[in-house]
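Appendix B. One record, verbatim.
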Amino acid sequence: MSKQSRLRTDADNAFLRIQNRSAVAARILSETELVEQARDAKTARLRAERLERDARKD
């Protein structure tokens, strides 16, 4: 294998590692956002139910 093709292979591998890390980070952020949205929706639902229950008590 020539030195130039070895350098090219090393560069390609380094680029793929960076791309992989970026994809993993993006997936983690996406999953985190989904969890936050679900939590916010549940909080809003529970708050509305609590307010409704408290309104009925009065």
